[in-house]
Amino acid sequence: MSIDIKSSAEIESMKRANGIVVAVHKELREKLRPGISTRELDKIASGVIAKHSGAIPVFLGYHGFPATICVSIDSEVVHGIPSQDRFIVEGSIVSIDVGVKYRGFVGDAAVTYGVGKIDEAGRKLLIATRDSLYSAIEKARVGGRLSDISNAVESFVVPRGFSVVTEYVGHGVGREMHEEPQVPNFGRPGLGPRLKAGMTLAIEPMVNEGVGGTRVLSDGWTVVTADGRRSAHFEHSVAITKDGPIILSEGLPTGLD
Ligand code: MG
């Protein structure tokens, strides 16, 4: 397994790709209201990406994925397919994942948004998932080990009564959306490759209200929780540098504002 090391110029390029991802999220946050279809959200995302000459959505066509963004609602964990027949409703939690390639580099980030007034349990799930991401990013430091990042997610959410999804994981990111290494959201600390300056990772906790298990719907894409309870997903693209972690997708909406 070899983990690609990016130069500082390459990291700057990744920041630009992620800047477009953040712009898409900001626009979607404005438009995410009860009554809008998930297909309409997808069109809005395509429109923002198209404003940047040369930028392309990386999910579209990936292993045949039919849309620009993934929209996963309530018990859907990840990889939900936007549809003209699916409408956003008040009180739901909506996970949106956006990936963009720009000038040879990929940006990748996800937020779970609360729509209108969400219940207290949903709010706690969102906050725990988001904060577990920042706890994991804190471990993305030179000299640490890969599983320190993984352990940070699990050790944050489990004591709060939640479960981590183990079937889907974060990943290296850069010229390709998925590079080495895989970045699980669970496991003992102190294991795996040593973290080095220039590694770039998409860290993405997927956290369930109930059990950690999942299954895939008959559309072949949408991952749902095994028990039908809700799931949240936050993701940042992060660069490890000698001066500490840099969040390349800085500026994402919080999901609750
Ligand atoms: Mg990702």
Structure description:
- By secondary structure, this protein is of the alpha+beta class.
- The protein has a single domain (8-247), classed as Creatinase/methionine aminopeptidase superfamily (Creatine Amidinohydrolase, Alpha-Beta Complex), CATH 3.90.230.
- Helices cover 26% and strands 26% of the residues.
- The chain has a 5-stranded antiparallel sheet. Strands 1, 2, 4 and 5 form a 4-stranded antiparallel sheet that branches.
- Helix 3 packs antiparallel against helix 4.
- The relative contact order is 0.20.
- Residues 108, 171, 202, 204, 235 line the site of magnesium ion (MG).
State the gist of this model:
The chain is α+β, with helices and mostly antiparallel strands and about 260 residues long.
